[in-house]
Amino acid sequence: MTEPRPKIPIAPVLSRASFGAPSGNAGSAGRRPASVLDAGQVRKVTSGRVAIALALREMGARAGDEVLVPAYHSPSMVPPVLWCGAEPVFYRIAADASVDLADVAARIGPATRAIMVTHYFGFPQDMAAIRALCDAHGLQLLEDCAHAFFGEHGGRPLGSWGDYAIASSMKFFPTYEGGCLVSSRCRLDGVVLHSAGPGFEAKAALAALENSFAYGRLPLLRAALGPLLRLKDLAWRALKSRRTTATSGAAAAPAPDASALAPASSDSGFDFEPRWVDKRSSWFSRAVMRLASTRRIAGLRRRHYLALEQAARALPGCRPLFASLPEGVVPWQCPLVFDDPETVFERLHAAGVPLVRFAQLRWPGVDATTCANSAMLARRVLALPCHQALREDELAWMAAQLRAALQPKAEAA
Question: Are 147 and 118 in contact (CB under 8 A)?
Answer without folding.
Answer: yes
